[in-house]
Amino acid sequence: MATRPKNLYDALGVSKTASPDEIKKAYRKLVQQFHPDKNPGDKDAEDRFKEVQGAYDVLSDAAKRKQYDAFGSADGRAGGVRGGGFNFGEGGIKIGDLGDLLGGFGDVFGGGATRTQQQRAGRGADLETEVRLSFEDSLRGIETRIPVEVEAACRECGGTGTADGSPPKVCPECKGRGATVESQGFFGISQPCRRCGGNGTIVENPCRRCDGSGRELQTKQYAVKIPAGAKNGTRIRLKGKGEPGYNGGPPGDLYVVTRVAGSPLYERRGDDLVVDVSITFADAALGSEVEVPTPEGAVSLKVPAGTESGKLLRIKGRGAPKLRGSGRGDVLARVKIAVPKKPNKQERKLLEELRKVQRST
Q: Considering the domain boundaries, does residue 92 fall inside one?
């Protein structure tokens, strides 16, 4: 028999400092690994699948996770006494309200009144995906469709988690609390219920498709408009297109991150585009005009006399569209002086004469 996880973080194979994104990725990987459809008849895999589902239900909810980190359970109970009682955590022993203390002894010894855990509405997780663009598409902007894998309501049971559509029932082991108490002498220690995974409810006739979780991974197609001038790493938010919420909570958002391919012609600097322009030594010394390519067509540019190699000459308003505000960046023509590798006789004669003049001055 497989070793039981020590805690909910151990069940997902993540640290206590794991980010929500790391928790979600670990959950998805384990759900696919231990899903009953992939492991028919494997009781250990079925148990791990349920543990993973229970752990994710708590750790994916910010409020539940905070309670679990503080008290060892998701319902705010510390050491088997109602919230505000004894806490045997790393911070030492803490004694809260006396009324809670006295009222909690029933829970410590198992004789108190039961209380069904109220299921909290939880916001769905945010998702992030990437879309790859050509350099030209990033400048002009496009509208495209992207596939996104989301956790949605099971298509077979409609999200109920049950095969016959009946609602979940109160867990008979924890009486709906979501936690059980183990006696440790005079006091009791509270921990998430193993039967229901801390939910307080169980599904007696689980849906075979989702194994009672009510949720499954689905691939959905979303239309996204990439604005003109998008850069590498631009984030576009699609509100409400993330994972659905829990118990009636709102859905999360989807963030689309652009990955822009490089350009063989331009180097991007913010909203400006740098392009190399090759001229002769004579043109650089005496001045001239050159044609400079821009996204909207070639532009004639005057090169001043005495221009040095590497100098940037600005063409205003011909660069990339600005994401914030109106207008465009500039095109920066970077001058590159072309030196003839094999000058002909006339070129050599003129260059030698120029050298003599320069040396004599």
A: yes
